[in-house]
Amino acid sequence: MPIDFAKSDPQGVLRFTVLRQWNFDGHEVVLVTLENIKTDYECKSDEVMCECDFADNRSLDAHKCPSKQRARDEVAAESRAKYGGQWKTMDLKDAILDVYGRVRKHKEYLGEYHPGTLYVHDVARILDRDLGELHPACRQLFVEEKLDFNGMILCDYESRFRFPQEIQQLFRYLVEEPLGWPNGEAGDCMLATIEAAINEHTDYKHGKQAFWEHNYPNIEPHLLIMFGTIWLETALVRLEADPKAKAEYLKWAKPSMTVKDLRQLARRFAQLGRDPKKSP
Length: 280
Ligand SMILES: [Zn+2]
Hints:
Elements: H1 5-8, E1 14-24, E2 27-36, E3 44-50, H2 66-89, H3 92-105, H4 120-127, H5 131-143, E4 148-150, E5 153-155, H6 165-180, H7 186-201, H8 207-211, H9 221-241, H10 243-252, H11 255-272
Antiparallel strand pairs: 1-2, 2-3, 4-5
Bound molecules: zinc ion.
Zinc ion binds at residues 27, 50-52, 65, 67-68.
């Protein structure tokens, strides 16, 4: 059954420009530009759509249609056939930047789930690499201030004041935990507000200015160990003295679990102190 665009837009608000069309065993799929022609500002986006999106009883799961995925996979395979040779000769970080540039700057569709939006797992799929390999490379691109991440979505790096990541994690957790961790973007919104205020109203325009080179974007391990140990002892002193705090701790955790975690960590720390030449 061919897609009938007019049926889904009786008011004639949208312009549908089909960029590409597939037919998988009689099921039609399109890569289409949707444009609202009744606004004064530009309002358009590319989408992968199929018959399921135009059915009378459109299901909420229409985006999961396997034919759509087949179209995306086909485009991803074509992208690899076209650029895969170059990507293989590149450092993984450069290959990620290349995919990002093509999709975000040159508006090429490479087979990502939502055209124009690149999640880390989209890049892994397009490059045919393991997510496990992608994460450290993405992390490095952030440290080098070449890419930023909105959750798992790749975006341009904007130079501004930021807290070290461990402080950001703590803030996010403190904000979201009572709401049911993780809770959407409550923590990110709070962080964005505070960091923007510092950036705008103080002389701190970069995390390094406030926390020094060695503690940005990550706090140095020896400081984390120092604070971690102090915090553990602080928590223990309060648990020993405050029955209410102890009851709250016992509601969420077991001392035996904490002891087990600490023992595991202790073993690994002990390993760090060994001379690798002497140990087997
Ligand atoms: Zn479908």
